[in-house]
Amino acid sequence: MSLDFSWHQFVTILKYKMEQKGKHLILVDRFFPSSKLCSNCGYKKDDLKLDDREWTCPQCLAHHHRDINASENIEKEGKRILREKNIKIIRDNDTAVGTTVNAFGEDVRLSLGEQFSMNYESIAL
After folding, report:
1. Which are the contacts of 79, defined by CB distance < 8 A and separation ≥ 6?
2. Is 69 within 8 Å of 35 (Cβ atoms)?
3. Which end of the chain is more exposed for a tag (fewer CB within 10 A), N or C?
4. What is d(CA 123, CA 72) in angstroms, rounded to the nearest whole number?
5. Cβ contacts of residue 67 below 8 Å, gap of 6+?
6. 3-state secondary structure of 63
7. Residues 2, 19: Cα–Cα separation, whole Å
8. Could you give the CA distance from residue 22 to residue 20 in angstroms, rounded to a whole number?
């Protein structure tokens, strides 16, 4: 129960912080088959086992690394959910970096300083 509460608390704080910055938190369903879907053509490999770290799609012959493929599918699903909610995605070098807000009929982009960093660094605590 403690872990469930901790996760809920983390998501609540993250959502609050994202909203403060004009961002959207999108949660993908935990049963979304991100590893089993071919990120190239959408084929679903139902017999994929947890220890299968790589696989080749029998439909389009694309070779996948399980975690990279899953991350690409999660990104696509998140963007699909954003489009479904009519939320505009701003792109910079094909990377979603923010959203626009409407201010008196004009689309306004948050300043770069208000965007989340795309750098992946470890920080000693």
Report:
1. 89, 96
2. yes
3. C
4. 26
5. 35
6. strand
7. 26
8. 6
Give residue for tokens 């998501």.
11
Q: Residue type at 71?
A: S
pLDDT in tens, 13-44: 999 999 998 888 999 999 999 999 999 999 99
Single-letter residue type at 48: L
Six-digit token pair at 107?
A: 């689309």
> In angstroms, how far is CA 5 from the centroid of its own chain?
23
Helix segments in 1-125, DSSP class H:
2-20, 66-84
Instruction: Please answer whether residues 7 and 13 qualify as being in contact, where contact means their C-beta atoms are separated by less than 8 angstroms.
Output: no
State the amino acid at position 38 in one-letter form.
C
Strand order in the sheet with 89-92: 89-92, 95-103, 106-109
CA–CA gap between residue 118 and residue 86 (Å, rounded): 24
Average pLDDT per 10 consecutive residues for the chain, totaling 125 residues: 75 92 90 97 96 97 97 95 88 52 49 41 38
Pairwise CA distance, residues 72 & 60, whole Å: 16
